[in-house]
Write a structure and sequence with these properties.
The structure is a homodimer. By secondary structure, chain A is α/β, with parallel strands linked by helices. Chain A has helices at about 10-20, 25-40, 110-130, 145-155, 170-180, 190-195, 240-245, 255-260, 275-280, 300-320, 335-350, and strands at about 5-10, 45, 50-55, 60-65, 70-80, 90-100, 105-110, 135-140, 160-165, 185-190, 200-205, 210-215, 225-230, 235-240, 245-250, 275, 290-295, 320-325. Chain A is built from 11 helices and 18 strands.
Amino acid sequence: MDKLNIVPFVSVENMMRLVNAIGPERFMKELGLVIEDDFRRWESFDKVARIPSHSAEGVIELMPTSDGEVYGFKYVNGHPKNARSGRQTVTAFGVLSDVATGYPVLLSEMTILTALRTAATSATAAKFLARKNARTMAIIGNGAQSDFQAIAFKSILGVDKVRLYDIDRSASLRLARNLVGTGIEAVICESGADALEGADIVTTVTADKQYATVLNDNMVGEGIHINAVGGDCPGKTELQKEILLRSDIFVEFPPQTRIEGEIQQLDDDYPVTELWQVMAGEADGRKSDRAITLFDSVGFAVEDFSALRYVRAKLQETGLFEELDLLADPDDPRDLFGMLLRAKEREKLAV
Amino acid sequence: MDKLNIVPFVSVENMMRLVNAIGPERFMKELGLVIEDDFRRWESFDKVARIPSHSAEGVIELMPTSDGEVYGFKYVNGHPKNARSGRQTVTAFGVLSDVATGYPVLLSEMTILTALRTAATSATAAKFLARKNARTMAIIGNGAQSDFQAIAFKSILGVDKVRLYDIDRSASLRLARNLVGTGIEAVICESGADALEGADIVTTVTADKQYATVLNDNMVGEGIHINAVGGDCPGKTELQKEILLRSDIFVEFPPQTRIEGEIQQLDDDYPVTELWQVMAGEADGRKSDRAITLFDSVGFAVEDFSALRYVRAKLQETGLFEELDLLADPDDPRDLFGMLLRAKEREKLAV
């Protein structure tokens, strides 16, 4: 209350310190529980599809939501060609605000945090949708998000064996190297079909910005859970349509997923189940050990909200934030111009 | 290029230094020219109505736009009861980004900057709409925005006499005090009608969040320019409807103004002129010395964009910014998780 101008800020450096202080596995587990908690109260959130600004090179999006007490939004870009100039394909930052005053209460980097929440959401969905005792996961596409997926599934489901495939073998080698010492056994495979051998779960997380077929229908056996992460914008999918027709499909927010997800290949009224309903006990998840379940993940604002409120809850105990002078706080709220005049006087005196 | 993680940040303190270093009058004049420049190329902007999140206490809005090369958005709240807790009714911050990469290139406070751009837009509109040689302006409502209006009209139009009225006389006294030494003569008036005596322009900028009648039809004489700033959300207007029917009405972005502006009192197809068309020479502004012109101002994203790009252009010469570690920049763009691992190693070594 005494410093109304200050907003706590979590830089990239402090986010890395925070994740390492908590430990990536524990971070995933706790974040997964916050996401689950927010999904269970899904109906208390204002939900709108993200607001995109498209260009030839990519997209910039704003993703707002509110639970009536706290408002949050994320800024995120998606620029597939960025790697060529040494930049991230996806960068993000986010804000939480107090609905009662409209004042921001947290500004945070979200490039790392988005990677964490995407993986924690995937593993939390799989907790409800994969077969019990699933231990082996195929990961097709071994880029920046794949490590986070492996760690989240280890932490939340106990997956301790991953079978890796990427058209670029060096990507699989990179991923396998990062998993050394995590208790996850990594096997590098020669093809997608090879990776699926004996897998209880398959995660597809490739980066192509086009209709691709990362999974063919004949690769997908009974009982598998498909965690489809990479298809996440109009014109970008990873699964052959026939797979969708054999699967029970679970989504975050249907109006958004029908535009951006794998189900953009299906009719607008094709039946899907909302993930929150499964978590809240209002809909069935996996119906049998032979069913094929598909989480058609595109990412939704509520997950970012969960991630931001988890980070915020950790700030006081860890102190891993800076104070940002973001909000004007004149002595008299009516006298904004007077604050400028007094700042000038102070500078004169300081000379 | 060498520090891809850094985004320049203009704090409240640095914004005050910047305005004082340039001088409020010169700042208004230069900002007015940037706004005019952007209004002339109005059709090159992506335009959407702002995205609001309403609550019982107020509203939080996101206002994005893009010209295809630069993307900008503003976060702004409106909470009329905030003054009771010593907070600003309106606070804001904004971001500019490079469309080609999606990377933010500026984060700035915008509480002060919004006050400046609102006033600069009003005065720039009046440059095209008020009678030539207008020198006297009535200001009804003498709160936080009124000082900025007076300075902008002095700077951009040469208005050197203001006639002040507020239901709270202490607000008028406050404003008059801040105008001492600016070359603007301030007269405190006993009523709105009194304030309008001999005025070439009337600015209404009251804070009531309800339908109010700050100006009656019989107060408004021929040839005046009305700068209606305070009516800026659904259910909040300041002018008697009869005034609108006698006026030539100019607006920023019709889909937004029809919801938020004075013209919410009129039919949805009531003819109005877009301000940018006047500035671009595509529509008439003032048609005669006897016409009543009305700028129904609600504020639009393009004005914030102009203000942010003006501030950005001043950063290198003034150095009035900080470097914010906002964007993750791993050595290998694919290896975001590896960046976390290496940060942990660094911390171990540092112990």
